[in-house]
Sequence to fold (110 residues):
Amino acid sequence: MLVRTRHAERGLARRALTHELRRKGVTPEVAAQALEQIDDDDELAAARDLAVRKARASRGLDRDKRRRRLAGMLARKGYSPGVAMRAVDEALAADGEDPGGIGSLGDDPA
Fold:
């Protein structure tokens, strides 16, 4: 129940939830079983939702500053860099901004 609640309400990723369960004294076996409730798609969706909500508050800022702030927020919630950047790029695109990050389509120097 703690895993579902923290993931849904606070948007915590599996890594942050693992840390919280360990801190509360939950055995690794029980924690692993509880974390099976969250799959990769759930984690990406939660990261994207958080990024979309926070992107609204950063409108008007420089694109790179927005990306850094959003990625940092997701990192603090326990999301991996890959998931965080994908969610940030999708959130910025949904907000009407070209995310233009490393590896995006617009960065090809050729």
Q: What stands out?
A: Confidence is low (pLDDT under 50) at residues 102-110. Residues 1-38 form one domain. The chain has two domains: 1-38, 39-105.
